[in-house]
Amino acid sequence: MANINKELSIVIPAYNEEERISKTLKKYTNFFNKRLDYEILVVLNGCKDKTLDIVKKYAGKNVKYINIKEAIGKGGAVIEGFNIVGGKYMAFVDADSSTEPDQLYYIYNRLKNSDYDGVIGSRWCKGAKIMKYQPLKRVIASRVYNTMVRLILFLPYSDTQAGAKAFRNNAIKSILGTVIPVGWEFDVALLYALRKKGFRIKEVPIIWADTLGSSLKITKTAPKMLKSLLRIRLENSVFKGLLR
Q: Where does 8-235 sit in CATH, by number?
């Protein structure tokens, strides 16, 4: 399925996204069809709704999909996708359209015209514009989580969770086997693996809007987030395997 001749490969992980995936695919195909040679790979994992039926309607020259029966989480889905695609530049975005395609295109151009190995979109660095904020409790949780990321993993970014990131092919392919496949926290695990190997990542401001429909429950997920951060840290230390 991989096409090494593509300029940009976009991976979209999808778990029960029947309410949002059609809008996202329509926006992204309409936008990128006019601009460059690209491919989109939707990685469905554990979907129990009609996501597969909807994605099939978009399948063709530029849109592919794989359907994994079990739920392997966002991290597992993106890793699976990155192992398959082969574009010169590789990106992943969330299925909810919170990041418009023009913002990913902006990130791609910033990467292409720089000597960085990756560029990530940020909602919280200077110059960013949030068109629609998340509920207050989620904003607070996001800022607390970012503080934990800085303290535990020493990542210098103001926003690791915005759903728009792009990297050079060689950078991603060289670290896939070392990324801890956690779920929602996968973005952090990926950035940590890249920085550990010496790759340079640039954070840039984007325009972003919250989209209704997220299945993430902060109160239930918070302890798991902390455990995942500690796992990422320990799995890359002499204490590997201690926290499972």
A: 3.90.550.10
The phi, psi pair for 236, rounded to 5°, reads -110, 30
- The domain ranges of the chain are 8-235
How many angstroms separate the CA atoms of 141 and 237, rounded? 27
| Residue linked to tokens 């210098």 | 156
Strand partners, 93: 164
For 69-171, list the strands marked E by DSSP: 89-93, 118-122, 129-132, 164-168
What gap in Å lies between CA 108 and CA 168, rounded to an integer? 10
Q: Residue 23 to residues 13, 17, 39, 103, 129: CA-CA distances in angstroms? A: 15, 10, 17, 16, 22
Sheet holding 63-68, edge to edge: 63-68, 38-45, 8-14, 89-93, 164-168, 118-122, 201-205
Would the CA dihedral through 136, 139, 144, 145 be positive or negative? positive
Tell me the C-alpha distance between 192 and 152, whole Å. Answer: 11
Q: What is the pLDDT of residues 136-152, one digit of tens each?
A: 777 787 778 878 888 88
Average pLDDT in the 111-123 region?
Answer: 96
Q: Copy the structure tokens of residue 173.
A: 């392919």
